[in-house]
Automatic annotation (TrEMBL):
Protein name as annotated: Amidohydrolase-related domain-containing protein
Domain of life: Eukaryota
Gene Ontology molecular function: any one: zinc ion binding
Chain's gene name: LOC101876753
Keyword Hydrolase: yes
Organism: Melopsittacus undulatus (Budgerigar)
The keyword Chaperone is annotated on this UniProt entry: no
Lineage, top ranks: Eukaryota, Metazoa, Chordata, Craniata, Vertebrata
InterPro entries linked to this entry: Amidohydro-rel, Metal-dep_hydrolase_composite, Metal_Hydrolase, Metallo-dep_hydrolases
Entry keywords, A to Z: Hydrolase, Metal-binding, Zinc
Length: 226
């Protein structure tokens, strides 16, 4: 029987695959074969006893298969649902203050630097490269109040091939670091500009981010006060 027209295979891997599905939070598949076509789509995941039939049907040779070692396994990309990209510039440091003091002492003054596109490009490139390297294939990013560099973050994400929502921060009140805030009118106008500049997913990302961030910070403040 003739095979239907299919895009050629780009990769065939053999080894252990770990994933989750509706019926199991973690499923470990030993001795499996996974095929990926040139569009990057997984086209099969089958037990290795199907190898001969798969090879015939997809036209690959044994020498095309990349075999994982005993200590290697594949897993799906990780999803970071809450990451503040500008704060990457001081990741792992400045952990000596409670949240509100931490925001006014470190975070807002740092975020205020992101109206400088060279600075923003340098840090945003590092955060996207690092998260991808660590296996984060999808992320929900917060940027800053600056529209142009928030869009720059989206462009960097596109360039490196990560999937993401990018939210512009909207902040029309900030007594502690007054240089880092917008007027309400600017905030609305810039948010509209940002959404028109990219696609509607950014609007969704914005609201998701705002909702989650405020909820998270409010809850954390409440918790710290207990
Ligand atoms: Zn947050």
């Amino acid at each position: 029987m003739d095979s239907p027209q299919r895009p050629p295979l780009a990769h065939v891997f053999r080894g252990t695959f770990v994933h989750s599905n509706a019926s199991a939070p973690m499923e470990v598949l030993h001795e499996h074969l996974l095929g990926v076509d040139e569009n990057g789509t997984i086209v099969f995941l089958e037990q290795t006893d199907q190898q001969e039939e798969l090879a015939r049907s997809w036209g690959f040779k044994t020498s095309d298969i990349r075999e994982l070692s005993n200590h290697e396994f594949f897993m799906p990309g990780m999803v970071d649902t809450h990451i503040h990209a500008p704060q990457y510039s001081f990741a792992g440091t400045r952990v000596d203050l409670p949240l509100l003091q931490w925001l006014t002492t470190y975070t807002f003054p740092t975020e205020a630097k992101y109206n400088d596109s060279d600075f923003a490009e340098e840090v945003y490139t590092r955060v996207v490269r690092r998260t991808l390297k660590n296996g984060t294939t999808t992320a929900c990013y917060f940027a800053t109040i600056y529209t142009d560099t928030s869009l720059l973050l989206a462009e960097i994400i596109d360039k490196f091939g990560q999937r993401a929502f990018v939210g512009k921060v909207c902040m029309d009140m900030n007594d502690s670091v007054p240089q880092y805030k917008e007027t309400t009118e600017d905030s609305v106008q810039e948010t509209e500009r940002k959404c028109l500049s990219r696609h509607t997913a950014f609007l969704m990302g914005l609201f998701l981010n705002l909702y989650k961030c405020f909820r998270y910070h409010a809850e954390r403040e409440w918790y710290l006060k207990q």
